[in-house]
Specification:
Metal Binding Protein, Guanine Nucleotide Exchange Factor, Chain A; seven-stranded mixed sheet; alpha+beta
């Protein structure tokens, strides 16, 4: 399934085609995530938990669902979702909480900060953009769960709104 903003290339053969495909993939990643594919680090409030992600092909969006509102204590959360192979816990341990049939959320056991979540199978990891050392490194490209957004929060950023999960959500 093609994602919004994904570059579709013509199938050709040889080294020239491979180089063109790699260039188009990098351009597509930069367009969708607002960054080049380089490792990013982040962690909790007290610094006991640290992680690293490679945002190559990350899905970056806002979530307005009620569960994210409660978990973050904010009207909306901003996320970067990557395959589990692109996430690495580099310091500390986390406390898991199975918040639903679909997800497990992880907290710092020392400061209680919400740091990341996984799907029930552990295939994907979603990090909260606010936990990145440089939260400006990635920018959301859509709003998920718009059906649960708080009406007093006025957002006019021109991004697509999905009533529930965005179609690319794994």
């Amino acid at each position: 399934m093609a994602r919004t903003g994904q570059t579709v290339t013509r199938v050709t053969t040889g080294k020239k085609a491979a180089a063109k495909k790699a260039t188009n993939k990098k351009a597509s990643i930069k367009k969708r995530t607002g960054t080049k594919a380089k490792d990013l680090r982040g962690g909790c409030l007290c610094g006991s938990v640290r992680y690293q992600i490679t945002p190559l092909g990350a899905d970056v969006d806002y979530c307005h669902c009620r569960m994210c509102q409660i978990w973050s204590g904010a009207p909306v959360s901003a996320w970067a979702q990557v395959p589990a192979a692109q996430f690495r816990l580099i310091k500390g341990t986390v406390t898991p909480y199975a918040s639903s049939k679909r997800g497990i959320r992880y907290f710092c056991p020392t400061c209680g900060a919400s740091v990341f979540m996984t799907d029930e199978t552990g295939v994907d990891v979603g990090v909260m953009l606010g936990t990145l050392d440089d939260p400006k490194a990635l920018r959301p490209t859509a709003h998920g769960w718009w059906s649960a957004h708080l009406s007093w929060l006025k957002l006019d950023d021109g991004l697509p709104h999905w009533p529930k999960d965005p179609p690319y959500d794994r």
